[in-house]
Each structure stands twice: as structure tokens, then as C-alpha cells.
Design a protein that fits this description.
transmembrane; transmembrane helix; membrane; mainly alpha
Length: 137
């Protein structure tokens, strides 16, 4: 499912392009994608007014992965982020959001193999993955 072109989508598209720039050895390396992610994080912190809000968690996790990838032996993380961000932009499937939805403070039901399967095999959704999982039986 191709996502609506919301501000959220444009942020992720720009992030994808800047991540490709960094991986290609382009100008500034990974600094531009890190800077844009900080801007996104601040924007969502101000919008949600809660550091624990799910959109803030996703951007915090993404930023932490970008920073960890600065360590040369962990630079492969950028390729994983590129795959995930591209999936988010093209079909609306965000692996990071799905992983974060399994954390205890984000779940409304006990952890189980069925929940794990449902979380990762559920088709992309227009709403938050948390909202979609809450609607599941």
C-alpha cells in the first residue's frame, strides 16, 4: 500500500535520500541524515508533548541506530536502515515501528508467538501499527 503523502511520509523520503547519499560517500556523509532525524525528533516531541509517544519512540530509535552506525564495525546498520526506510516510503511497512510495538510499555496483550507473527506478518496499515494491532482479535 503506497502511503499518503503526509509530512511524515516526506520526512521519511528525505531521510531515505540522505541515507543513500551517506552510503554512496556523498557530501557530508551521514551528518545530513542525522541532522534531519534530529529535526524530526524535535518536531514530534513538540507535536506529541510526550517523550514516550510512539512516533517519538520510532524517531529516537532511528536516531540511535544512525549514531551507532558511526562506529565503523557497525556501519552495516545503515544498510538495514535503508531497507527499512525504503519499505516505509514505498509500501508503508516500518520494521522499526513493529519491533518497538513489542516492547512491554507499548503492548496491550501478553507477548506470545502469535503476537510476534501478527506483528511482522500483518499487511501495511495507514494508521499506527499500535492502533492496527489493538484492533486485531
Amino acid at each position: 500500500m503506497l502511503r499518503d503523502k503526509t509530512l511524515d511520509w516526506w520526512y521519511w523520503l528525505a531521510t531515505d535520500v540522505l541515507l543513500i547519499n551517506g552510503l554512496a560517500g556523498g557530501p557530508g556523509g551521514f551528518v545530513p541524515v542525522i541532522a534531519l532525524t534530529v529535526v524530526q525528533l524535535v518536531h514530534y516531541l513538540l507535536r506529541e508533548r510526550a517523550p514516550g509517544a510512539f512516533p517519538v519512540q520510532v524517531r529516537t530509535g532511528y536516531l540511535l541506530l544512525l549514531l551507532v552506525g558511526q562506529w565503523p564495525s557497525l556501519a552495516f546498520i545503515y544498510w538495514i536502515q535503508l531497507a527499512g526506510t525504503t519499505a516505509m516510503v514505498t509500501v508503508g511497512y516500518c520494521p522499526l515501528a513493529r519491533m518497538l510495538s513489542l516492547l512491554p510499555w507499548n503492548r496491550t496483550r501478553p507477548f506470545s508467538l502469535a503476537l510476534l507473527r501478527r506483528t511482522f506478518l500483518m499487511p501495511p496499515t495507514r494508521s499506527s501499527v499500535l492502533q492496527a494491532l489493538a484492533r486485531e482479535p
